[in-house]
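Input/output pair, single chain:
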Amino acid sequence: MHRLSSRVLDALLLLWLVTTITFALIHLAPGDPATLLISPTATADEAARQRTALGLDAPLPMQYARWIGGVLQGELGESLVRAEPVTRVIAEALPVSLFLGGVSLVVSFVIGTTLGLLQALRTSGRTDR
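Output:
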């Protein structure tokens, strides 16, 4: 029981670290997400309104709390490129990704098993050395 709780705590710590690093990297990226959503001829007032609408005017700890709360609820935000929820974009790509992952797993298994059997049959051969 102790090992299980230790592993669960390790997994939670790792998950927290990954999400925190992801949040930090998003904020360290050059540029302002608000400027991507407004026209290049927008005024400073319009840019400030967009930053407020996105919650970018809040302190970083508040932004992190909102972001992690959204992630925990399955709300990953809106795609800046496709202007639709990220969860929908992921859901559309998931079947193809799972298919490609499954095919690569089967191909790797077949090739690996075949090569392993061939090496087992030819002990002390050139491939063993």
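The mean pLDDT is 87. Residues 86-121 form the longest helix (36 residues).
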